[in-house]
Every structure is written in structure tokens, then in C-alpha cells.
Amino acid sequence: xPESRPLxxxxxxxxLAASEIRIPNTTDAxxxxxxxxxxxxxxxxxxxxxxxxxxxxxxxxFDARGHGESDRNPSGTPYSWDQLIDDTIVLTGNLAxxxxxxxxxxxxxIGLMAEARWPGLFxxxxxxxVTPRWESSGLERILAFMSAxxxxxxxxxxxxxxxxxxxxxxxxxKSPQSLRSLLRQxxxxxxxxxxxxxxxxELARNSGGQxxxxxxxxxxxxxxxxxxxxxxxxxxxxxxxxxxxxxxPHAQHIHLPQATHxxxxxxxxxxxxxxxxxxxxxxxxxxxxxxxPKSPGSIPE
Length: 301
Description:
Shape: globular
Strand order of the largest sheet: 1-2-4-3-5-6-9-10-11
Number of strands: 11
Helix content: 25-40%
Largest sheet: 9 strands, mixed
């Protein structure tokens, strides 16, 4: 039976929170490393991680620095892309074998840069609704939502209402209690996002300046690549996807028509099925094989 446990992982200068699902007496299974998107935590992967473990794939998910339960940068030390890349390299280097990275948005981009800097770091990379270039209008909408309540929320119910209005397509409204992993209550009684607010200005708003470097990283990477995109994404488009395919002609692409940028949260069953099918393909002789997905609602390209 899979065994889950929390971890604290040391990088060069701070400690990251993580959750690991091990499978006892399994030594040759492909391991998956989950990297969340900006403003998320490792809990974004809970359902997918449990499903992968039931199918024989051990996995590890972690909170990036400044997110969730991981340490924040000290005052006077700005956040940078290089810090996140180095964290990923150190964390991955401590694993027994090269894992398959499943990275959403920021997590995928950081993984792409890490693989370009350290070839062979990952057995394969699954990019979840992210490409080296993105639609700036989509990013601005996301950041506007994330920075709209600097003084926090009156209550968990207030936060749940705001999130429901931002994500009207979701079939189920998040329960107030489920938001405890995303929000922190301050001494003033108000609830604020779990991430360091400095990340907005020090990392996210300057991310456009990384796009040339990201494009070059995509051109360099030779590990197997899979892009899983949402048909209703506001961040990537046919234009950015086509450019990515020209940069990395060996990359494969799955399109989930009903998902937005929050692919794993919008259509977790279809997303997880696509990842499981890809992992099964990676295990076949003659790797890397051509990926032929069978997930309902997915469209191979």
C-alpha cells in the first residue's frame, strides 16, 4: 500500500515543505516530481498524486520558496528565477533516480530552465498549460485577481465567494474549510493568501523578461516533453503553442477542451488519465514512444 508522509527538504539557503507518497518494496518504478504554479501549493496535486500512487508511481510534491509552508526569503533578499531553478536542481538531485517532472505554469517553466541548465535532470517533462511565451493579457488578469485583496478577506466564506466569482465554470464551489490550506489567518483576524506578497512584484511582474531565456531553454532540452493545455486557457493560445512546437519539435501535445489555465483543478480526472497514459508509454521499450492518448475529452496533436 502507498505510504504518505510530510517532509522538510533543505536547499542551499532555506527549507521547503513537501509531501511524499512512497510505495514500499518498489525500486524500479518511475518517480514523479510535482511542481505547482505561481500562488499554489503542493496540495494542488493531492488527487493526482494519490491516483498515480495507486497505479504504481511514487511521487513527491513540494511548496516552492515563498509558498505554502516553505520558508520565505529573508527581508532584503529579493526573489529570483535563479533561486527557484537552483532549488529544483538541488531537490531533484537528491532523488534516487531522475524523475518525470509534472509542472504547472511556473513550476513547468522552472523545470524547463533547470533541465536546460542540467541536462538529464529529468527523465521527461510534462508542462501543464504553459509555454515559453504567453499571452500578457491573461497573465495580467491572473495577477490582478491575486493582488486584489492586499488586506485579506473578512472570513473564509468571503474568500470562497470571491474565488467562485473568479472561476464561475467550476462545477463545485470550494467550501470555506477547504481554503485553510490556501489562506493564513493573521493576528487581526483577517485571512490572507499563503504566499509571500513580495512574489508579485519581485518575480511575477518581471516574468516577461524571462521569455527569451525560456524559448532558448525549450530549444536546448532533449528530454521527452508533453504539453497538456486547457482549451479555455487565458495564458497560452494557439499562437504560443505553435511557437513552442517549433522550438521543441519532439514535444507532444494534449488538449483538454473544457479546462482553463487551472487544468488539474478544472478536469482532474482527464488530466490524471493523460499523465498516467504518458507514464505508461515512457515505460515501454524503445522509449520515447509516440504518445497516443485515450483519455475521454482529450485531443492529441
